[in-house]
Structures are given as C-alpha cells and as structure tokens.
Amino acid sequence: MCCESKRRFLLLYATQKGQAKAIAEEIWQQAGAHGLEADMHCISEMDKYNLETEKDPVVIVISTTGTGDPPDTARKFVKKIQDKTLPPDHFAHLQYGLLGLGDSEYMFFCNGGKTVDRRLQELGAQHFYDTGFADDCVGLELVVDPWIDGLWLALKEALQLQKEKEGMNNAVDAVSGSLSTAPHAVHELKLSSEVQNLKLEDEGARDSDILSQKLDSINLVDPARDTEPSLVHSVPPVSQSALNIPALPPEYIEVEFQDTQGENPHLSSLISEGTTFEVPVTKAVQLTRGDAIKTTLLLELDVADTAFEYQPGDAFCVICPNNVSEVEELLHILGLSEKGDNFVCVKVKQDTKKKGASRPQHIPERSTLKFILTWCLEIRAIPKKAFLRALVECTSDGGEKRRLQELCSRQGASDYTHFIRDSNVCLLDLLHAFPSCKPSLSLLIEHLPKLQARSYSVSSSNLYQPGRLCFVFNVVEFPAAPSRPVSRRGVCTGWLAELVAPLLHPSKNSLDTKGENSSTEKISIFPRPNNAFHLPADPSVPFIMVGPGTGISPFIGFLQHRQKLREQHTDWEFGETWLFFGCRHQDRDYLFKQLQCFLENGTLTHLKVCFSRDSSTAEVAPPKYVQDVLRLCAKEVARVLLKEGGYFYVCGDKKHMADDVSDAIADILSMEMEAEKLEAMKFLAMLREAKRYLQDVWS
C-alpha cells in the first residue's frame, strides 16, 4: 500500500487496447509532483482494492469497446455493481471522478464510462470532480489534458474536506499551501468532446511534471524556403515558442539477446479473449471487377473439425501479422537486421521508477525478435505524445529533436493532430522523417501497443453451409501522403490478400482441376459473438436489412439461414424480408448478384438496389444511395416498423451511411406518424432500446 505521509487516492483503469491504462499511468506519474500518491490498479484486480470500504477519493479511467460495451477488463466489475439487490446508499461514502474514452463515430459514445458513472450515482456515490468524456474521433488529448490539469486541485479539495469531516483540522502543509490561494468551493470543470468548447490556456511553467523547453538558437525553417508547416518543419508561433512538454516516461523494460535456439510461443498464447482455432482457407473469390475502385474478396474457412460455433450476424477475429517488409525495414533502421532470428528475453528493469511495472502481457518472456515485431507489436500504431517525448531522447540532431519536442508539446497540439494523427503516421514514417532518431528495442516494447486481432462479420450460415465460415472484406489501401511518402495496404486485409493470391490466381501448371491449392494456407481465428445482431427469434416477424458495399456481408448469412429454415419447416409462417443494397457501379462492384436467387425462391421478398456512380438517361434520375431508396419506400418501411413490429438492421460505414439512414428513418416515421421529428426520434430511440433497430457499423 501507499506511504501514509503522502495524500493517497485510488486510481482505477479499465482498458481494451491500452489507452486508458496509458492515461492512468500519466496521472500516476504526475501525482507525485502535486504531493499526492496514486494507488493504481486495473479495475479487474478486485482483490487489490475494495470500493465498499474505500475512504479516499477514487479516479476512474475507462474506455468503451464494441457497440458501447465496457472493456473486457471491466466486465466483472460492472456485473458486480449492477447487482439489483444493492441498496441505493451502497456507495454513499464514495467520492470519485471519472474520465471516459470513446469515439463519437459510434452511436454509443463513451457508453462504457457512462454505464459505470450512472450506476455509481444510483448507488449513492458522489462526484468530487466533473466527469470528462474524451473523443478519439477528434483527439483524446483535447479533453484528457485539461481534465488531468484540473484534477489536482479537485483532489486536494476532496482530501481536505475528508480531513475536516474526520475532525482533523490541522491541514497538511503541502495541501494547505496550495489551497490558500484558491477559493474553497466545489470544483467544477465542464468538459466536452467538442473542440470549440475547450479553452486551453498556457498559464506559464507548471509543476515539475512539465518541463519548460526554452527556445534555443535552433531554427527549423528557412523562411525563404518553407512558409508552410509539415511533419519535419515548423513555423511561427510554434517555432518561436517556449514549449511545455510532457515529463519523460520512466524506462521499465530491459531486453537480453540470446542465441537462435528454441521455439516461439503459439499464437494462441497472445490472445486472452478465449479459445483460438487454426483453420484452413478453402476458397477465395474476388467479388469486384478489376477496374473497381475497391478490391473486395470473399474467403471461405473450413471450421468442420473444430468446436468453433457461430450464428448469422456474429463476428469473429483474425490474428494477423505485421507486413514482412515493414518488419525487415524496422530491423534495418534499428541496426538489428542480423539479430532478427535471435531469441530475446524481456524483463522489467530492477531499478525502474515506474510503479507496478510488469512485462506487457502481449510480449512473451522469451521469443525471437522477429516474432515480437511481427506478431506482438502494432508497428503501424499512431505514436502517442508520450512516445514522441521518449523519442526525443534518442535523437541526436538538434533540429529534429526540437521538432519532436514541438509535436509532443501543448503549443504543437495542432501540428500533432494534423501531421501525425490525421495523417496516420506510424513509427516507420517518423524514423524516416527524423533519421537521427535511433530508439532501442526496449523503448518500442514500452510504447508500441499490442497488435490487435481484426474483427469481421460472418457472411454465412452454418445451417446452410455446415462446417464452413465465410467473410467479406475490402482490401484497405492507404495512398501516399506528404507525411507518409509510401502507400500501404491494411495490416490484415493486405496480408490476407497476399495469402490467398494462389487461390485467386491458381498456377496454370497445377494438376488440381478444381483450381484449389494443394498447400492450403491456415489462419488463426477466435469468436466474437454479437449479443443482439441476430435474426428475430420469431420467424413470422418481418425485417428490413440495409447494407451497401461490404455492409451486405452479414445479410448473406441471414438469407442463407432463412432459406434453409423455409426448406426444413414448410409449415412455419415467415415474415416478409427487405434488402436495400447499394454500390458504385452495377457492372463492377455489385458484390452478390445471386441475391436474385433469394428473390426468386421467396427467401427475399423485396430487393432494392442503387448505383451511385452509374450515369442514367432516364428522365427522372434513379436514387443514388440506400437512404434515398428508403425514402421512396417510406410507407412500406413505416408499416413494417409501426404496425407489424418489424426489425431494422443496418451494416456498413457509419460516417457516410449509417447516420444518413438513421436520419431518413426519422423523417419517414415523422411523416407517417404525422408527428414532429423530435417525436419520431424518440420512437426511433425506443426501437433501439428494444433491440429492433440494430447496427453493425464501423468508421
């Protein structure tokens, strides 16, 4: 436990991909400079803290995953506090502040944090500090940084009030000193994810957790040559500012190189989410024509000899490696090309100043260097400011050092957003842009996040195709840009496309007349069940599916399943089914022309398609987008939802489609209900709550 001489508070984090943990660690690091000590734990470590008896203030940092769910590490905690037998004063003694992380691209923004916040309030807990909701869509730091800045005064006031309540009126020197110049009032900091509501003011040099970087004689910009900022160049006022940069994160990992003897861990050891299955890819089909803007592939996996189970509408995850050439390039820059096959032993430094330091769970204790860079670390991750701060110390050129300092500073926040975050710059891009930067392997292990498995919607039915699992994806392309001079493919989609190339283009010399490759490639997968995005339990209930582009993927599984049920249960009553599909060109990327077969055999009652880039000679131009077609079918859509208790499913891109579909449905309901749009939106919210308006969307 923490030393009693310092004022203690409990710091809990619940993380899915590591961001909440990194922010909690930043709070822990800054606490000491404020005369405080954070007792930090993952929220899942319920044996190390007890909120039922906690007297000190509690700070919670929590992310959101999936469709608004708390992260996996918070599931047990959430289940515990949602116990309906708990009395309304269960946490009446508790003071807390909560920082929620989310992405406004998704409907249930920060819902993980909101769920915990709401329940703690219901159980009598009190805020000592206003809740903050940080938006990864515009940059977490826009809310996180000012929220942390305001936390310290709020904590000290909460601790002071706690002392007074305990009858201990002799204030601790460090606390009373800081409170003497501040009004004794309830501390409020209204935080919003909207950039225009934030006021980031530089109040000069702050405590020792922030270093004041004085402007020296370094001038990165030759005014005659560069008047616009870039990744490597700054302009006034940033180039002429004294900088407030983060404290240097403490080193905590050491790496010992060993020989080349041994075996790497199995990929399943890298996954904590459940059982993994290594399955063969039995089929690959390119669904788009060669001249289509996007390349769309369908892959079929053989799961017959496994215990893998799924329903139409479920998702699953693919364990994928980093690009081989990028790994080799990184090894070369690090000067470790000759040691790629050497085993390395990863340990915690004995003299580290990092509290509770431990080897990251996604890093094996012993494996080859190539294994770590290929399967464990997300080398494509956008570098966080703490990583940039650490890279400063590995950079020898003065101009490059200054620019990295700017990019991680408060003064350079706009440059960071534009040239790193929005440009999808990764470590390799930085090392090319700042060639004197030579980080150690241990630094990469400390700062690069876990290489995440990629999630895909199932596009098949096990009832229709026993022992087979299909999925559909676009091969993601990232074109070259000023901050990223090379084009790249998506980590997983690029790897899968390369892996199945022999199935797409079988060798002419192959003796296999069926065109299947004798040396079938295998991939490792694990299930990610969807709790709601399933067919209605009652087959007589009608439903509407909206899935442009690859958003049609789960609905193929829906229709396959429905067709098989109709064949097996001729006496059942089946509700009508609608499918709204859209793509750019009818002859290039109409992904599943066999939809007509579902229409002809009665599985699909209504099929509505549109093509956004095809020209038309018709007197009245046809609708371009699925939301336009929905409006044309307003009466039928309203009938299904209002009168027949039907379901509505949307799958695909959120930003450019799902929101527009939602607006169209609100307009349709407003018109058919003869009500104000606000009333229609309330009804739509009720449909969502009843799990009758369901989304599987991505940004």
UniProtKB/TrEMBL annotation:
Protein EC: 1.16.1.8
Residue span, FAD-binding FR-type domain: 274-536
Catalytic activity: 2 cob(II)alamin + A + 2 H2O + 2 H(+) = 2 aquacob(III)alamin + AH2
Domain annotation Flavodoxin-like: ranges: 9-152
Record keywords, A-Z: Amino-acid biosynthesis, Cytoplasm, FAD, Flavoprotein, FMN, Methionine biosynthesis, NADP, Oxidoreductase, Phosphoprotein, S-adenosyl-L-methionine
Subcellular location: Cytoplasm
Protein name, entry field: Methionine synthase reductase
Underlying gene: Mtrr
